[in-house]
Amino acid sequence: MIYSLAPMEGITGHTFRRVHAECFGALDRYYTPFLAPPRVGSSFGGKNLKEIDPANNEGLNVIPQLLTKNADAFVWAARELAELGYAEVNLNLGCPSGTVVSKGKGSGFLRNLDELEVFLRDVCERSPIPVSVKTRLGLEDDAEYERILELYRSLPLAELIVHPRVQKDRYQGKPRWEPYGETLARAPFPVAYNGDIFGEEDQAALVAAYPQTRHIMLGRGLLANPALARMLTGGAPASASELKRFHDKLFCAYLDEIGGNAVFRMKEWWFYARCAFTDSMAVHRAVRKARKVEEYETAVERVFRTEPLAPVARFHG
Ligand SMILES: Cc1cc2nc3c(=O)[nH]c(=O)nc-3n(C[C@H](O)[C@H](O)[C@H](O)COP(=O)(O)O)c2cc1C
């Protein structure tokens, strides 16, 4: 089985990937959170450049993800990525955020299949590196997926990652496995599954239903339980000391990168990581009020000293 880390804007950036791989072993693949392509003729800069700088991704198999509906910008960015040594580029057709969707990007691009078809044919032909897609089933209704899948099937995609929800679900409700199974059965290219794989039993059920499953992308489950990929291959859960070591390295790395704002970045992680503790509400309360680095350190020290780990670390909303 191939395991990859989901792109998660604001969370699974280069610092998280590096520290996670150092503490829990590298996953097979990492997808960057979505990047807007640079203007045609210019290079990636600022935060986006840091994200794809090969020096920040050494030793990891990273696939950059782009969010755009402009084919020239996509192809230009793909050329820049190829020059940096990347071997694949991923297109985001899943983002459900209102501001993205209203601009016809992310899952909003699924509203206009004629335009999407022209875009995809063009970028598949002109991109110097293979193009993969991460998709939802549609915007409102699963039935939209029939036409969407037909379109994908007619293209030379490197891979299709299916998050089997529609835009209006956001991240709520059960992912629908049937359309994923349908994709596995009918797609002429490799298919990956993403959505609510939070523990071994979820993987076992998915693989029992769809034994051809070959690539699982992990998101919130791995943030709540950083040892999840290890456990899915029969390894041990994270011990308290492993979790603390991971936390400390992550916090230090963020402090180096963004100074005092590291506290706020860590609080995003705690939204998921609290699930590793028996009393996740107590952990949430302890960490939530911290603003300054010292307050934060004191709160976290108390959490690790007083809060027992949950018997099973599993994401719950
Ligand atoms: C905070 C957050 C940020 C996300 N950012 C991205 C993103 O940049 N690109 C993308 O394709 N999906 C993004 N996603 C969706 C995830 O990649 C993934 O599809 C989703 O979390 C479902 O998988 P899971 O159930 O394993 O978490 C994001 C999700 C969350 C919760």
Automatic annotation (TrEMBL):
Q: Which residues form the active site?
A: C95 (proton donor)
Q: Quick check: keyword Metal-binding in the entry? A: no
Recite the UniProt keywords alphabetically: Flavoprotein, FMN, NADP, Nucleotide-binding, Oxidoreductase, tRNA processing
Which PROSITE patterns does the entry link to? UPF0034
Say what the protein does.
Catalyzes the synthesis of 5,6-dihydrouridine (D), a modified base found in the D-loop of most tRNAs, via the reduction of the C5-C6 double bond in target uridines.
Task: Give the family this protein belongs to, as stated in its UniProt record.
Answer: Belongs to the dus family.
What name goes with this protein?
tRNA-dihydrouridine synthase
